[in-house]
Amino acid sequence: MKSLLLVFILCFPYNAGVKSADSNFNQKENIAYPAGMYLFDFNLFGPITDLDRDDTPVTRDCDDTNDRIGPFRMEVPGNHTDENCDGILACPPDDFNDTASFLKCLYQSLDELVDSGKICQDESDQILLDALTAEKK
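Given the sequence above, the corresponding structure tokens read:
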């Protein structure tokens, strides 16, 4: 009987179980589970729970509530967010006494991203616009 129970547990689908108390639906697998039936993640061989579903386990993600933040994300200059979890902000607005210095940092950072192929010029222009709009608030 014990071996049958063990086989039963190991045959659950990937990430089976209820992730939160208010949800009984596994969106990744499109499988509905009876409320309260499975309270644990039975995935013994895969990543630990990933709340924002960005494929980075909660143990490595500095903000597991936001799928745009994780150790493999690109750092966006000119905002107050550490997108790549390295503890360093690229051109944080609060570190500059004047707009000219802030713009110089932004242009240099964005040029590096465009030159390396990480973003295109249109994305660079949008990041610059977003940073300048946020700075004026």
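Residues 1-45 form one domain. Try to locate this feature in the token string yourself.
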